[in-house]
Amino acid sequence: MKLVPELPLLRRELTELANRRRTYIVRVVGAVILLFFVFLAYSQSVGQRLQFVGNVGMAGPLQYLGIGGDIFSQIIPLLFYTIQILMPALCCACVTAEKENNTLGTLMLTRLSPGTIILEKFGSRLVPMLTLLILTFPVLAHVYTLGGVDTDLLIGTLWLLFCECLLFASIAIACSAWFTTTVTAFIWSYVLIGFLAALTLSLGFSTFVPSAIWRTAFIDSQWGASRAQMLAINTIGLGPTVAQSSWLITVSRSIPALLVTAVFLLFARLTLVRRAFVSQSSLLLRIFRVVDVFFTDLNDRTTGGIELIRDSNPLPGDDPVAWRERNKKSLGKARYLFRVLVTLEIPTLFICVLAATASARNNFDGLYVLQGLIWTLAVLVTAVKAATLFSSERARQTIEPLLSTPMSGVEMLGQKVVGMRRLLIVLAVPILTVSFTHFLLQISFNRFSIDTLQRPVAYLLLSICATFVLLYLATWLSAGIGLKLHSQTKAVLASVTVLVAWTVIPLVAVVFFRFDPPTEEFAITFSPLSAVLATEQYLTEPYMRTSYNAYGQIENVPRLWWACCTIVVFAVATLIIRQTVRYTCPVLLGRRENPSEPPLASVPGQAQVPVLEGTQ
Q: What is the 3-state secondary structure (H, E, C) of 334-361?
């Protein structure tokens, strides 16, 4: 009996990852980004410390004493955020990839038990993440030598980082074992993680998420500073002594998080065999069919079968692809989209009415949280749907009959996007409901006049423009990525990644570089979030008091111009992306549609492939 198991599946997974060039590209890019943010945090902490000790009057080598605590408290949250963002994306395809390639059945014929398969898949996804984290260990070691970080704090933090990897990997693997496609597992992984985070924040249970344990264990609520910073202050004799806590206490507090990890792994092991050969039918479509049966029976009993929206099957006419998207897809039919609208609109309308009646002030913060959640959901659904417009045709092997039709690739692309128009309108309604609530809260009916109505009406018009501009921006960008990448999983992951990076990078740059207010607005303009942010700030803060004239007096710069500029910028960006996607569409579809190109040259010994007249 061997003491070290062979682990053949783990060896195969790691070998496949090592043979892929993109593994090293992603690892290098991720390491560069992570180390870049670590360097920014390092510079920011050093600047804050020098400013602090300068006010105290210290100089010389003593001003750097204990600076490691400041740097440590800035770096560790970045590592937790990296795990929370990357870990589900790395693990969501570990089982669904086997299902999509029809190799899971072959894998289950081996001597490997379902539990062994799950554990080895689990280990194969942990190795890349741990490798990325190990790259930051030399920085942590250097921070430790600067002082302000004790051994218990360092060991406890490293343990919680490892537990965070285990927890988020187990959630993604459970979703991968239950669902049949990687796209569905990817979405539900982040949904469950968001639900767990909301549960932790709302109920105050910090023992289920290791990052929450780190914050509660190493944050001093009395002084508002991290334990590492208090240790640094105590090192230079400027603060009270911080009680030392053993790292064993931190390990004991992480036991509930480890139990949650074990529960998700057990769930994945129990569902691996049961969900191995489930058909890849649309879960949403099955839910709609069940709801159809319920509402049909209820309608027959109550109204005698009266139908407000009747099922119709019109002829395709001049837009067959758009007709197919509207009448043959679950997210294209009017009655299904109406039910999606009701599902989204009822809770949104309830919260808006509650905010309008229960709030005694004009600016209700809960509406901004609701607006952020609805925007996130709308952009995610739009990106997933647009990225799979053509990749889903390739997965179902229906792209060849579609390309054989006498239609150009640009026409197919245009009709595909037109088929999404109903979905975009449905997603825009809850967003505009929140905007309309802000509009009503800003109207003073006691002093109703044209002057008091001008700014709310302008805000409402800006909100409508910003909503459809950003939704079409996400649609065309994701559609172009879906044309380039043939796999549905890669297309969805790439689309979401590009949209998140485009939104977050300008905001992170503003936070770390600390631009002045005029430069700050200019930098934020490069983020799509600026269109929404500028519109909301125009309603609540009509002027930016950040500009000074030659006499040092404050000038009022209207935010209306900033809101209009952001909408125009992203409208132009949408047009540029649209034209680029339309121009490259024939090449990405593998079609030759330029009549000036020479005909296909015949190869000796091989029959010449005819080209349809409608496809040239």
A: HHHHHHHHHHHHHHHHHHHHHHHHHCCC
Write the CB contacts of 128 (distance below 8 Å, at least 6 apart in sequence): 17, 23, 27, 90
* Res. 204: pLDDT tops 80: no
What tokens were used for 6? 């062979």
Place of tokens 């949650």: 260
Please check whether residue 547 is in contact with residue 555, taking contact to mean a CB–CB distance below 8 angstroms. Answer: yes
Inter-residue contact 96 to 124 (CB < 8 Å): no
Q: In terms of DSSP H, where are the helices of 146-246?
A: 151-178, 182-203, 210-217, 227-235
Q: Which two tokens stand for residue 508?
A: 């992170």
CB 419 within 8 A of CB 405: no
Q: How confident is the model at residue 603 (pLDDT cuts 50, 70, 90)?
A: very low
Torsion, CA 562, CA 565, CA 567, CA 570, rounded to 10: -130
Residues 6+ apart with CB under 8 A from 48: 70
Cα dihedral value 436, 437, 440, 442, nearest 10: -110
> How is the chain split into domains, by residue range?
21-277, 321-589
169, 168, 173: which is closest to 271 by C-alpha? 173
Report the alpha-carbon distance of residue 378 to residue 497 in Å, rounded: 15
**Would you state the pLDDT for residue 542?**
55
**Long-range contact set of residues 234-243: C-beta below 8 Å, sequence gap at least 24:** 234/66, 235/65, 235/66, 235/69, 235/147, 235/148, 236/53, 236/58, 236/62, 236/65, 236/66, 238/56
Q: Are 533 and 524 in contact (CB under 8 A)?
A: yes
Six-digit token pair at 596?
Answer: 């000036």
Q: Which residues contact 136 (CB under 8 A, 6 or more apart)?
A: 34, 35, 38, 75, 79
CA angle 496, 281, 294 (to 5 degrees): 105
Could you tell me which residues come within 8 angstroms of residue 485 by beta carbon, excluding any fewer than 6 positions away?
A: 391, 491, 494
pTM > 0.70: no
- Which of 114, 123, 121, 119 has its CA nearest to residue 270? 114
Is the torsion defined by CA of 238, 240, 242, 243 positive or negative? positive
Q: If you average pLDDT over residues 141-164, what whole number do you get?
A: 83
CA distance linking residue 106 with residue 276, whole number of Å:
11
For the chain, give me the number of helices (H) and strands (E)? 25, 4
Rounded CA gap, 474 and 498, in Å? 10
DSSP state of 23: H
Q: Which of 248 and 416 is assigned the larger pLDDT?
A: 416
